[in-house]
């Protein structure tokens, strides 16, 4: 039996985590600019490159593919080595994946503001970049599964199951949704048409959320939550049930985006039913993570990293309750295309994904650089409350705006005429859009404080890191 300690590859993990932090700041700052443009349209600056339609896909791509994919790639490569007690499959391949993915993001940063887009949600990048994405993703899959094959333990830790699902499902749905006919170097058209295109698009769009922003983040949390709470997973069996529940039902739920459309009613109904079923595994997994944290109640009272994780779980419960609710026809009738949907998406993205990632940044980055404490525990407290204020203001403002907007669109007089004009609906939601800008700004300001805190942590000598009150 080989008793040599594995030579874990952590340098490439550092690069992925720092890239994730940079893209979080950049992508969310663009989001704040977009929120400002919605309230002050003059901030488009009469520029074709700086207007909402071109910046918006840059915001979503920066957050999803820059911030989230980088942190998932980095943490997955770290976790698969540690839990398998083995070295990475191929160190050179890991650097090819890192630089290949940053090239994808650079090309997105250039092409989207220039107007090169397929106009498909979360799949705007044109066909040459899509090909590069597939190549890098295959290399990443070889790297991850090759490392699993090298493991020195029989068991495959549950976090790796979630990472495996996120890698396989994203590859499958991305390729199918992006089948297209190129007509020039930077222009293509989908091979699907009409309702078929819509069904395939939302099979991709909803499952990009389901397996990047949900399954991947859950995998990350199933490793780091026990680490930070210094307790084992509350129920390992429940974590496996959580996995199979998400894998079994999530991929069917995407057509709830197409309720009241020309898509066949039975296809819409599948999306509605599967969305409702998803309540069960989602809340089961949330319960499992919450109980893992609550096993160490004493530390939870004062450890703000644990509190960030606990907050993320609460927002996960909220999002996985609200999503199925919005899939129900009556609620969908009010909410569809309104600000309510934007509030739902961002309460999940900022509350669940954002706070999970923030907790990982605070816990993981100091340890990657060999530090034992944060430079300023006081700043993490400030960040915690700024993040909460930002999410609550953002979400509540858009809930109010969306519900009011939805009712105004539906209101009719006795003779069937619309009671409210489009301008009146816009005037109603204007102050709430201002609050959205304030909420987003607070959240991003918290990220800036975190970045300063972490930079000071990794650059200060360990002997000079002092604990604040």
From TrEMBL:
<keyword id="KW-0813">Transport</keyword>
<feature type="binding site">
    <location>
        <position position="257"/>
    </location>
    <ligand>
        <name>Cu cation</name>
    </ligand>
</feature>
<feature type="transmembrane region" description="Helical">
    <location>
        <begin position="236"/>
        <end position="253"/>
    </location>
</feature>
<feature type="transmembrane region" description="Helical">
    <location>
        <begin position="265"/>
        <end position="283"/>
    </location>
</feature>
<feature type="transmembrane region" description="Helical">
    <location>
        <begin position="92"/>
        <end position="115"/>
    </location>
</feature>
<keyword id="KW-1003">Cell membrane</keyword>
<keyword id="KW-0479">Metal-binding</keyword>
<feature type="binding site" description="axial binding residue">
    <location>
        <position position="344"/>
    </location>
    <ligand>
        <name>heme b 2; high-spin</name>
    </ligand>
</feature>
<keyword id="KW-0679">Respiratory chain</keyword>
<dbReference type="InterPro" id="IPR004677">
    <property type="entry name" value="Cyt_c_oxidase_cbb3_su1"/>
</dbReference>
<dbReference type="Pfam" id="PF00115">
    <property type="entry name" value="COX1"/>
</dbReference>
<feature type="binding site">
    <location>
        <position position="206"/>
    </location>
    <ligand>
        <name>Cu cation</name>
    </ligand>
</feature>
<dbReference type="GO" id="GO:0022904">
    <property type="term" value="P:respiratory electron transport chain"/>
</dbReference>
<keyword id="KW-1133">Transmembrane helix</keyword>
<feature type="transmembrane region" description="Helical">
    <location>
        <begin position="156"/>
        <end position="176"/>
    </location>
</feature>
<keyword id="KW-1278">Translocase</keyword>
<feature type="transmembrane region" description="Helical">
    <location>
        <begin position="127"/>
        <end position="149"/>
    </location>
</feature>
<feature type="transmembrane region" description="Helical">
    <location>
        <begin position="12"/>
        <end position="40"/>
    </location>
</feature>
<keyword id="KW-0812">Transmembrane</keyword>
<keyword id="KW-0408">Iron</keyword>
<dbReference type="GO" id="GO:0046872">
    <property type="term" value="F:metal ion binding"/>
</dbReference>
<dbReference type="InterPro" id="IPR036927">
    <property type="entry name" value="Cyt_c_oxase-like_su1_sf"/>
</dbReference>
<dbReference type="GO" id="GO:0005886">
    <property type="term" value="C:plasma membrane"/>
</dbReference>
<keyword id="KW-0249">Electron transport</keyword>
<dbReference type="GO" id="GO:0004129">
    <property type="term" value="F:cytochrome-c oxidase activity"/>
</dbReference>
<feature type="transmembrane region" description="Helical">
    <location>
        <begin position="341"/>
        <end position="365"/>
    </location>
</feature>
<comment type="similarity">
    <text>Belongs to the heme-copper respiratory oxidase family.</text>
</comment>
<protein>
    <recommendedName>
        <fullName>cytochrome-c oxidase</fullName>
        <ecNumber>7.1.1.9</ecNumber>
    </recommendedName>
</protein>
<feature type="transmembrane region" description="Helical">
    <location>
        <begin position="385"/>
        <end position="410"/>
    </location>
</feature>
<feature type="transmembrane region" description="Helical">
    <location>
        <begin position="202"/>
        <end position="224"/>
    </location>
</feature>
<feature type="transmembrane region" description="Helical">
    <location>
        <begin position="304"/>
        <end position="321"/>
    </location>
</feature>
<dbReference type="InterPro" id="IPR023615">
    <property type="entry name" value="Cyt_c_Oxase_su1_BS"/>
</dbReference>
<feature type="binding site" description="axial binding residue">
    <location>
        <position position="346"/>
    </location>
    <ligand>
        <name>heme b 1; low-spin</name>
    </ligand>
</feature>
<keyword id="KW-0186">Copper</keyword>
<comment type="pathway">
    <text>Energy metabolism; oxidative phosphorylation.</text>
</comment>
<keyword id="KW-0472">Membrane</keyword>
<dbReference type="InterPro" id="IPR023616">
    <property type="entry name" value="Cyt_c_oxase-like_su1_dom"/>
</dbReference>
<dbReference type="GO" id="GO:0006119">
    <property type="term" value="P:oxidative phosphorylation"/>
</dbReference>
<feature type="transmembrane region" description="Helical">
    <location>
        <begin position="60"/>
        <end position="80"/>
    </location>
</feature>
<feature type="transmembrane region" description="Helical">
    <location>
        <begin position="430"/>
        <end position="455"/>
    </location>
</feature>
<feature type="binding site">
    <location>
        <position position="256"/>
    </location>
    <ligand>
        <name>Cu cation</name>
    </ligand>
</feature>
<keyword id="KW-0349">Heme</keyword>
């Amino acid at each position: 039996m080989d008793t040599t300690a594995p030579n874990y590859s952590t340098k490439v993990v550092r690069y992925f985590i720092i890239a994730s932090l940079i893209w979080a700041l950049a992508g969310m700052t663009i989001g704040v600019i977009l929120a400002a443009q919605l309230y002050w349209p003059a901030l488009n600056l009469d520029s074709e490159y700086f207007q909402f339609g071109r910046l918006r896909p840059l915001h979503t791509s920066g957050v999803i593919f820059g911030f989230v994919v980088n942190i998932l790639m980095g943490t997955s490569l770290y976790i698969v080595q540690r839990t398998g007690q083995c070295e990475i499959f191929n160190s050179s391949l890991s650097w090819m994946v890192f630089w290949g993915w940053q090239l994808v993001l650079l090309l997105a940063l250039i092409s989207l503001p220039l107007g090169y887009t397929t106009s498909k949600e979360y799949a705007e990048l044109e066909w040459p970049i899509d090909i590069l994405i597939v190549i890098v993703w295959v290399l990443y899959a070889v790297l991850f599964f090759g490392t699993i094959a090298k493991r020195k333990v029989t068991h495959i830790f549950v976090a790796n199951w979630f990472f495996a699902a996120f890698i396989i499902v994203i590859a499958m749905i991305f390729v199918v949704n992006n089948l297209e006919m190129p007509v020039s170097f930077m222009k293509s058209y989908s091979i699907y048409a009409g309702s078929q295109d819509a069904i395939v698009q939302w099979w991709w769009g909803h499952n990009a959320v389901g397996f990047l922003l949900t399954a991947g983040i859950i995998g990350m949390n199933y490793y780091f939550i026990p680490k930070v709470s210094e307790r084992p997973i509350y129920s390992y069996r429940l974590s496996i049930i959580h996995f199979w529940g998400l894998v079994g039902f999530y991929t069917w739920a995407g057509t709830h985006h197409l309720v009241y459309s020309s898509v066949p009613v039975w296809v819409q109904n599948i999306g509605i039913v599967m969305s409702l079923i998803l309540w069960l595994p989602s809340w089961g997994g949330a319960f499992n993570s919450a109980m893992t944290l609550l096993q160490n109640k004493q530390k939870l009272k004062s450890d703000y990293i644990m509190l960030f994780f606990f907050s993320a779980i609460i927002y996960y419960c909220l999002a996985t309750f609200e999503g199925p609710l919005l899939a129900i026809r009556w609620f969908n009738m009010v909410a569809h295309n309104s600000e309510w949907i934007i509030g739902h998406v961002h309460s999940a993205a900022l509350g669940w994904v954002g706070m999970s990632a923030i907790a990982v940044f605070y816990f993981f980055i100091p340890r990657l650089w060999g530090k034992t404490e944060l430079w300023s525990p006081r700043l993490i407290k400030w960040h915690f409350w700024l993040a909460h204020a930002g999410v609550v203001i953002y979400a509540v403002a858009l809930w109010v705006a969306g519900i009011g907007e939805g009712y105004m669109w539906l209101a009719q007089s006795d003779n069937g005429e619309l009671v409210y004009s489009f301008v009146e609906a816009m005037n109603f939601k204007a102050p709430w859009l201002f609050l959205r800008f304030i909420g987003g700004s607070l959240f991003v300001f918290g990220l800036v404080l975190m970045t300063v805190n972490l930079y000071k942590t990794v650059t200060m000598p360990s002997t000079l890191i002092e604990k604040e009150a």
